[in-house]
Each structure stands twice: as structure tokens, then as C-alpha cells.
Amino acid sequence: MWRYRGAARQIVHAFKYRGRQDALAPLGAMLAGAPRAAPFVHDRKRALVVPVCARRASRKRRGYDQAVGLALSFAQHARLPCDPRALRRRREDGPQAGRSRVARRLQAAAAFRAVPYRVDGRRVLLIDDVLSTGATADAASRALLCAGACEVSVLTLAT
Asked: 110, 142 in Cβ contact below 8 A?
């Protein structure tokens, strides 16, 4: 949706690092109007919104998972089911920020596992705040597809 600089970066940092959870509702509403969301809204029966789960250390430090909040807000506005427990982190390797593209891909490669009975046969819309190299989205998508999702699309606030 946005380029991750200027005002967009400030907004993401506000809810991600400064506890501004009040920003999640309007951001979820904005995402619900995104063209990429339309096919899921028209196929509610098989659609499932799944957030990219934050690392345990990040959740503990922030007191919440910003991607879960964003996904729940989006799902509420789009009137779609959301399952924050469909995707889990296998391991905790530290933040991606500041790593090279290659290091991000290697770190993310086996970081996720999806719960088959939650995603089997579903069209999954994976929600995250920022897409930088795509390593996290790629690894999460692979885990969801391996668990039986028939399709995975990614929707983020910024790139």
C-alpha cells in the first residue's frame, strides 16, 4: 500500500514500537478496502485471514503482537474469519531488521509451521505490517501451503 518511509514509517513505528494500538482500527479498515482483499471478501466461505506472528521476545517487550492486532482489525472490517493460531514460529532467531537480504532468507526459511486442520483447503490472506525483502512472507506462505492451504496471498501496510 505505502512505501515504508516518511509518514508511513512513522505510523508503523507508532503502533509497532510505541504502543499506539489505537492506530490498528483505522489501519485495518484501510487494508479492508485494498484491491488485493477483494477476492477474499467475495469468497468468504474458504477465506481465512492469518497474521504473521511476531517473535516471542517482541510480543513480550511490546505487550502485544502488532500483526495480530492488524489482522483482527482487518478481518473485522472485511467481515472475514481470522485465525491468529494458524501459523506459529518454530524458532526464535532475533529480529530481521538490519540483516542483509541473504541473511533474512536464511533466518526465515524454517521459522514457521502452520496448523493443518486450521488452514486445510482455505484461501489464506497473510497479514503483516511491512514487507521488506519478502523472506518472512515467503517462509510463512510456504508453511501454510505445506499444511494444506490451497492459496496464500500477502497483504501488508507498507513495502
From this structure: no
Is 155 in contact with 125 (CB distance < 8 Å)?
Answer: yes
Q: CB of 156 within 8 A of CB of 3? A: no
Domain locations in the chain?
A: 6-158
CB 123 within 8 A of CB 48: yes
How many CB atoms neighbour CB 97 within 10 A? 8
Within 10 A of 32 (CB to CB), how many other CB atoms are there?
Answer: 20
Please give the model's pTM, rounded to 2 decimal places: 0.84
Residue 116, pLDDT score: 97
Distance from C-alpha of 24 to C-alpha of 100, rounded to nearest angstrom: 29
Angle between helices 24-32 and 6-17 (to 10 degrees): 130
Q: Which residues pair with 114 in a beta bridge?
A: 87
- Other residues' Cβ atoms within 10 Å of the Cβ of residue 116: 13
The three-class DSSP label of residue 137 is helix
Q: For 6-158, CATH number?
A: 3.40.50.2020
Q: Give the tens place of pLDDT for each residue, 80-97.
A: 999 999 999 886 565 555
Tens-place pLDDT, residues 50-83: 999 887 877 788 888 889 999 999 999 999 999 9
